[in-house]
Amino acid sequence: MKDLSIGLEGVVVAETELSHVDGLEGQLLIRGQCVEAIAGNLTFEECAALLWTGSTSPDFREKLGRSRFQAWHQLSRQPQLLTLHNPMDAIRGFVGGFDATGDLFEDALTVTGAIPVMVAAWSRRKNGEDPIEPDPRASHAEDFLQMIRNKSANESKIAALDAYLVTVIDHSLNASTFAARVVASTRSDLISAITAAIGALKGPLHGGAPGPVLDMLDEVGEPHRAHGWVRAELDKGNRIMGMGHRIYRVRDPRALVLERCIDRMSTSSETAERIKLAKAVESAALKELAIRKPDRKLCANVEFYTAVLLEAVGLPRNLFSPTFAVGRVAGWCAHVMEEQRCGKLIRPTAKYVGPRP
User: Which of the listed CATH numbers 1.25.40.10, 1.10.418.10, 1.10.580.10, 1.10.20.10 matches domain 19-206+317-342?
Assistant: First the structure.
């Protein structure tokens, strides 16, 4: 048997034209373009169309708006989902309840429109408020914020959220994307594949770190306390949340994109202080980790500035992972389309280590 690779580390199982991650150079390509170049220049709708079809589409915003509106009517058939404790369970149940048409593009529109509608409705019901009907004329990011907050957001917050959704739209074969491709490789339907991806994203090792970054910032409190706090945490053997990545050996390029978005945002004095604190903690962590772990460079990952950005646009912490799904679902759909077009049944082999007769 070939050498064992736990977790399929370093094993190539597919060819893709969708995204490429270079961990040594700190580069993420989406359809051949650096993420720094497209976030803020392409809208989420344009980037989703680029992944699904290879080019942007002028009518894609209208189609996605229509899919959100259709999802709103589906919501009334599953009111019990709004009472679930975990929003990821609500998303999984909602997406899994749609009938697959067999048309990959139409089913992709369905699930991409459904997730923000469910996330917003769940959030409002959690707060004792009625869900808000989507506006099919609004952009995806704008409508998502409106459905949660029941008021219009300023343009800088909409732009920041839109750039975030583009930044996280795809990231090669991460756990949830691989789960979707495994299901797609059986020639099952897209709805089933996306349901599997949501289940994978629910796991704390994949989608659960942005919220704890804010808990960390709350505990640090002031920029001048950052160095002492980081030192004390590392002395206790604790991790610094939002630092380090399984693939990137330099700073996550998505962290840079989000940091720039926050800097451009029209923010309150409270948010400006939060950004100042975050940068102080990142700087302190970089210095201390470089001393303690000189053989491995641990830099800020996407979750570090995701937490600051999503807080700044007005989202509560319990919506951070679900909001990641609002963006990543477009990438999942693109991988399902690619897998069904040119993939082979994914069937790895396990090394048996149990008893024998």
Answer: 1.10.580.10
Question: Would you please indicate which residues are annotated as catalytic (active-site) residues?
Answer: 245, 303
Q: Terminal CA-to-CA distance of the chain, rounded, Å?
A: 21
**How far is CA 250 from each of CA 17, 22, 27, 89, 286, rounded to the nearest angstrom?**
24, 10, 9, 34, 11
The burial of 27, by beta-carbon neighbours within 10 Å (0-12 exposed, 13-18 middle, 19 or more buried), is given as middle
The 10s digit of each residue's pLDDT in 278-302 is: 999 999 999 999 999 888 888 888 8
Number of H helices and E strands in the chain, helices first, is 16, 3
User: Domain 210-312 maps to which CATH number in 3.50.50.60, 1.10.230.10, 1.10.287.630, 3.40.50.300?
Assistant: 1.10.230.10
Task: Say what the pTM is.
Answer: 0.93
Residue 276 phi/psi, 5° resolution? -60, -40
